[in-house]
Design goal:
Blueprint lengths: L3 E6 L8 E7 L14 E3 L11 H13 L5 E8 L7 H18 L3 E6 L2 H11 L5 E4 L5 H9 L3 E4 L1 H4 L4 H7 L5 E3 L8 H12 L3 H16 L13
Parallel strand pairs: 1-2, 2-3, 3-4, 4-5, 5-6, 6-7, 7-8
């Protein structure tokens, strides 16, 4: 029996054959919010200028330090979100990046038209933790720069439906590839089948590789970093 690994989901499926990293809003975090399942949480860039952003980040920081998260995020940058000033987005994003370094948790990133900004932030932070670009849609000229730095790429139905999806998939080193459902409603099994078809590779081999990557990246970290990060 196959086990399917979903790197970014917004809902749970009651299926014992699926392991998903579920993205919860900070307000949903609590002592039993995860029910033992792997979850991530962060202040989305769309909400970075919200009056609740500071309190929400505090909730994320507490959950991360108490080992209730498998990853920080989704957080990130979005040039299309004009109601959230970009300087504020960047400040909030960097707080998440520092929290990831403190806790040793991977960072799940939302990026829309901000390839160069994410790369500049990566150069500034110089993270030891893994960064994951969810909904990976970097421009061809920047995709290689992300991958050279060991930033993992997670693709879902939207990315796999694009005209150059096969070319994008082939550029991603096997150890950096993840697959996701996001908010699409498409079963993760179908996402794997589509990726395997585009790559012209064996489905079982792809499921195994993606599962290994998921486990390596999102397995809970045991030792917090020494750096401080205000909540």
């Amino acid at each position: 029996m196959r086990t399917w690994f979903d790197a970014h989901a917004h809902s749970r499926r009651p299926d014992h054959g699926i392991v998903a990293l579920v993205c919860l809003p900070p307000a949903a975090l609590g002592p039993s919010a995860d029910d033992g399942a792997p979850v991530c949480s962060g202040v989305h860039p769309w909400n970075s200028a919200s009056p609740d952003a500071t309190a929400d980040f505090g909730r994320v920081a507490r959950a991360a330090r108490e080992r209730r998260l498998a990853a920080i995020g989704e957080c990130g940058l979005d040039r299309f979100r004009l109601d959230a000033p970009f300087s504020v987005q960047m400040e909030v994003f960097l707080r998440h990046a520092r929290l990831a370094e403190e806790t040793g948790l991977p960072l799940v990133i939302h990026s829309v038209k901000t390839d160069s900004d994410i790369l500049a932030a990566h150069s500034s932070v110089r993270p030891e933790t893994r960064w994951v670009l969810h909904g990976f849609s970097a421009r061809p000229g920047n995709a290689g720069r992300f991958l050279e730095r060991g930033i993992a790429a997670s693709l879902g139905p939207r990315e796999l439906a694009r005209p150059r999806a096969a070319e994008t998939l082939r550029r991603i080193p096997s150890e950096l590839l993840l697959l996701e459902t996001d908010d699409s409603g498409v079963p993760i099994e179908d996402v794997h089948r589509k990726a395997a078809s585009l790559l012209e590779t064996d489905l079982d081999d792809l499921v195994r590789r993606v599962g290994e990557n998921w486990t390596r990246i999102f397995a809970p970290r045991a030792v917090p970093r020494a750096a401080s990060c205000s909540g």
